[in-house]
Amino acid sequence: MMLLRRTAVARRSVSTFSIQLSLQRHLLGAHEDFSMQNTLFRRSHQPNVDYQTSAVMSLGLPKASVLPTAEEIAYGFNQYPMVESATATKPGFINVKLDDEWIAKHAVHVAADGVCPRKAAHPEHVLVDFASPNMGKELHVGHLRSSVLGDTICNVLEFQGACHSNGGMPTSEAGQRVTRVSHVGDLGAAIATLLVQAVDTSDNAANDLPVEFTTDSTTVVTLGQWYERGKHRLGNGDAAFKADVDRTVLALQRDDGSWKAPWELTCAVSRDAHNRLYKRLGVQVHERGESSYLTLIPTVLEKLKSVTVESQGALCIFVDGPEKTPMLVRKQDGGFLYATTDLAALYSRVFGWENDPTAYDRLVYVTDTSQSLHFRHLFDTAKLAGWLDKRPVQLQHVGFGLVMGEDGTKLSSRKGGATTLEALLDEAALESKQRSIVAEADHGAIGDAAVRYYDLAQHRERNYKFSYASVLNLKGNTAPYLLYASARLQGILRKANVAAPSWNAYLLSVNDPTTLLSSVANGWHPNERALALVLGQFEDALLETQHNWYAHQSHPHFLADYLFRLTSQFHAFYETCHVQNNSSRLVLCASTDAVLRRGLQLLGIAAQDRM
């Protein structure tokens, strides 16, 4: 049964920066079977159509009723101030063209207020677990993805707030309290292998490896060399070496102090190297290693007694039933595993513990997709143990694909070995300099930004091919292209005959910029209208980035795509519309600068004043 409720919807106040949500709110009242999931509008490139929805076709109406229903709903849309015209087309699409004056007002509204972080009355407290390298190893290209994706997800959460989908309308008013954690590996077999090898001076000397293990002589490269040598010995079946490694793992996990000094040195050297690269990439994260949960592990294993089974001396959890491979939480020798410390961390985050008393509302883990099964087992164990019955915490694994070479194989260095993240960034800086993208003083920053942006611009769940030519391209969806637009905007400001030190100051100095821009909207050049429309879509890009429209999966590439559209439209506008001594067009420039800078900031990239 169709139930049209135009009058009720017309009285509803729409206080949002989102065009998409405004249109959906109008549509929701038009039929009793409409929901947030089946009323999405899509941007349209058809002439005189800005948005289109196929919502009516999702209602399961008789074929003969679809188009008449769409026509009736479209007719009702024409009463809304934001709509210039709404029509229905076969087989049941509703097409909407937005009002030019409304677009102008909305664009300035977004640039003035929509780029400001939200305040929260009752925010969620979210923990995002990302980066999380092993101590004793250099960061590699896999850490690039986890680090920049996790950092960007945090940026957007902090800025935007949650979109709750408990059957109601998503909200974007509640900014989040976000905790950023790097769950570093500092207890397992990897660091034990390194430590045992590091103190074996005779083997190191015989293999031309450093023999001194001191603060002054040890680097993260040295640590990596020791680890690789130790791994080689394990692979060759060195039984005595393996026994030493196993004993060292237990000693570290029991915190008996026997390896305290070399362990602390390894962690300190690794931490300094990792933080140096995080700084280059603009990544902010707080280290909290596996070792910080040591005192909690016995308590957690006790809490898991109802779901654990002892098998051949090991403690297991048969998450998928007795016929499937279990998740091991304690080895035969009493040692712990990766899963054990992850469960302890999860318990701590759900209920709070001495190293962090916060009981979080949502936990987000950012790792490559190969760990999807591990995190499913982890989350299912929390459910089986009844933890989530006591506190219904949202658990989310945000998986990502791999960084590949241009030939589709694993990315490697020019010498044929595995590519470290530092080598990747250094090469990008060198390529930037050789391509004369920017002045020499800036090529390092441009290279780092280009690598970060290119990663974020890719679909998170897919593998992608890395090439410096693509990463540093001045044309296309790249950081150099966007940064050139930010620099161009500053050049326009310097040439403009205005007494303002920044575009933000200019926008504040204009007497009623909203009225100024809307007053000329009826005589707009098509590229003026197109730019204003894209500016007004900033909030939609953020909602799509954070939740992919109710799929509840973070996808930063949507924000990158939006900034590319904005930048492309700005360039088209600038090439066709004279801006000097034209106040309304300067307002559009100021609005573009505000949105572009905020978007770049959310992606962790600093805008450029000159290029």
Automatic annotation (TrEMBL):
Catalytic activity: tRNA(Arg) + L-arginine + ATP = L-arginyl-tRNA(Arg) + AMP + diphosphate
GO molecular function, one term: arginine-tRNA ligase activity
Residue stretches making up the DALR anticodon binding domain: 482-611
SMART domains per the UniProt record, alphabetical: DALR_1
Any Pfam family: Arg_tRNA_synt_N
Taxonomic source organism: Aphanomyces stellatus
Assigned protein family: Belongs to the class-I aminoacyl-tRNA synthetase family.
Protein name: arginine--tRNA ligase
Enzyme Commission (EC) number: 6.1.1.19
